[in-house]
Amino acid sequence: MTAIVSVYAVFANAEEAERIGRVAVEEGLAACVNILGPCRSIYRWQGAIETSSEVPVIFKTAAEAAPALTARIAALHSYDVPAIVTWPIADALPDYARWAAESSTRR
């Protein structure tokens, strides 16, 4: 199987998620972006407990493209310290994995 991963990130709102998701696909860093519905996040920031509405996104990409994708998301993100993590994909339909890997190789 071609090595692919999911990169998970959260954004301040749907507009930011769509803007950055579109850039990732247009630049060939991600094959596909799933923008999920808003969620409530509870976290500690600068010594205080915060609660906010955020928009989670799952980017599918070739494993080798994940570091560049993560860096690009961080550069475009509105947060000082954005949550961006890479999740391994243990198994995928081979045709899907091949398509995702080929579609996320920079053009």
TrEMBL record:
Top-rank lineage group of the source organism: Bacteria
Molecular function as annotated in GO: copper ion binding
One biological process term in Gene Ontology: response to metal ion
Family, similarity comment: Belongs to the CutA family.
Protein name: Divalent cation tolerance protein
Originating organism: Allosphingosinicella indica
